[in-house]
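Listing S7. Sequence submitted for prediction.
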Amino acid sequence: MKTQLTQTEAELLELAETKGPLGKAAIYAKLSGPGWLQGAITLGGGSLAGALYLGVLFGPHMLWLQPLAMICGVIMLSAITYVTLSTGERPFGLVIRRVSPFLAWAWIIAAAIANLVFCLPQFSLATAAIQQNLAPGTADAEGINTMKFIIGGIIFVIAAVIVTAYNRGGTGIKWFERILKVMVGLIVLSFVGVTVTLIAKGAVDMGSILKGHIPNFSYFTNPTPAFTEAIALTGENSAHWTAIVTGDHAGKIIAAFGTAVGINMTFLLPYSILKRNWGKRHRGLAIFDLSLGLIIPFVIATGCLVIASASQFHGKTSDVLNENGEVLPAMKGSYDAAVKPILAKIVAEGRAETPEQAAALLTLEDKKVAAMYANRDVGQLASALEPFTGKFLAQKIFGFGVLGMAVSTIIMLMLINGFCVTEAIGQPDNKTAHFLGAMAPGIIGFFNPLIWTGASKAALAIPASTIAGALIPIAYYTFFLLMNSKTALGTEMPTGARRLRWNALMILATGLVTAAATWVTWKGTAVAGLKGIMSTTCLIVLAILFVVGTLSFLKKNRV
């Protein structure tokens, strides 16, 4: 593929080489684009939920986690960028020819599954942001989904129009990227506005915020000081509460870690770069683009969410229990889920015959720990912020930020699925196939009021999360192999100290992601039923793919 630079772009790239750091950055910012698409997809419901979980369970102590996860992701995205821009080839076909067909198809299938299933909660999140924060009067009566379908239909049409503009190429791509830049910028500004207000009102301890950016791995297995103090007051149940709280730590930590860079992002990046006709001359620009459009927005937005959640929920009980220790109606579901494990332990010890009898044995201190441990959602966070930020800022601006997260992610999931379809059928320039592939996640998302509910939500989320999560290391490992493929990169393959640096960084990133994915998947084998079956199967498939992929790579790259 020949790189076709417009005269203006070529001149700007040449001019950038003559400028200092600030001048070059200003020029690169003007030319940036694909990195912002990465920012748009990563700032979705998964990142939102991960940040909320971290704030509730750990307060500000885990502010370092998501930036670390993003660093690992960007290392591999940089490798993907290098391979794509150095070869000019479409990576799906390149992986088939130079690494392994099995790895290539595992990559594309996992990305497609993630696109289809994960679009459902994004529609649900967008609808909730409108009905709970932006326009509460539009909420449906119980059992009625009319407004949900109307809102979902509007979101689907908007997303379809924007994706169609991208599909046309040329100016359509530029407008698509501009729209996403604006959406990502507004998302960040929304959450920054909330956090700045909290700091100004004295609701945030800046010392703890700064300290929270220093890695502390002790909280993987130990409660935070706030939980430790509360648990110590529960007497004979203290050991149980410690096990319950810390038993959930690793899962929540790795879930937050995994939302930074998903498998669909590894599929999106090379094709969005090729769509822009970027080549070798753009390698410096591409790395800057990832930093500006992905790293900075993600770190700021998720950091602000963790800070807001921590300030309002970590170690707090007043939003769950009233002054008499009674559960507030709005939090009954979350409280019941939080208290369920301790009731099971009391019954198992023979101190009670039923969970109902066990509940009667709980002290006020037990209830407070359960209240601290209970999950919160976006609506509860917005309501908790009202005394500090005012109702308008908390509900409207915060709600707008959440809506932007959901809609931008929906657009990107649709776009990526179009790429998956055209690559799978071997017709990368087939606009009809791309359009139909892109519409599939949106159509499924439109029906989220019927699909993404109750048992169906759990039944879909478990296999999708397990499959996509387990196969993320495959994408990382695939491009690690490509970066070491002389037959793929030729004279562009890094050598000497440069190669050592690339490999050290890629091994670190791939190792961390593989360890995280293996741990989460292995944990699922302890759960009976579908989750255990899916987890075991994914671990076996993961091991097979690593072995088969390595053998195939060695065979295809014999010198």
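Caption to Listing S7: primary sequence and predicted structure tokens for the chain studied. The two ends are 26 Å apart (CA to CA). The CA atoms of residues 190 and 397 lie 6 Å apart.
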